[in-house]
Structure formats: C-alpha cells, structure tokens
Design brief:
Elements: E1 8-13, E2 18-24, E3 31-37, E4 42-46, E5 51-57, E6 60-64, E7 67-70
Antiparallel strand pairs: 1-4, 1-6, 2-3, 2-5, 6-7
Protein name: Transcription attenuation protein MtrB
Pfam family, one: TrpBP
Domain Tryptophan RNA-binding attenuator protein: 6-72
C-alpha cells in the first residue's frame, strides 16, 4: 500500500451538523460517502484507493500530521 494512503486525519465537530464528505479518485471526482457529526463527535478518516479528497462543511477542528486546521479561522 502506498504511504499516501496510510495518512489519517482526525475531525472533531465543534457544532451539530458538521458534514464530512469523501470524494472519489479517477477522471470524474464525485461524492462517494458522507457522514454527519454532532458537537464533540470525532471521526478518524483516511485517504484510500477510492478517496482522493475529504471535504468538511461546518465548524470543526481537523488534526493532521501537518498541524491543526480550525474551520472558523480566516
């Protein structure tokens, strides 16, 4: 397995209704999976053969090996 696929991120919802959306690999990028998180719920996500991007909609903190991203910061 490619090392890129072993990268994980942790998403912690800071409000109810945070959407986590997985996007596909390939010639046409499409939604392939969605989750809805409530306040203080945590999801651990991973890039895979099928997932090339992860979109997060709502107020959340995302923890990666590159640092922490807070969606309410500009």
């Amino acid at each position: 397995m490619d090392s890129m696929y072993s990268e994980y991120m942790v998403i912690k919802a800071k409000e109810n209704g945070v959407h986590v959306i997985g996007l596909t690999r390939g010639t046409d990028t499409r939604f392939h999976h969605t989750e809805k998180l409530d306040k203080n719920e945590v999801m651990i996500a991973q890039f895979t053969d099928h997932t090339s991007a992860i979109k997060i909609r709502g107020n959340a903190k995302i923890y990666t090996k590159y640092g922490i991203v807070d969606t309410d910061e500009e």
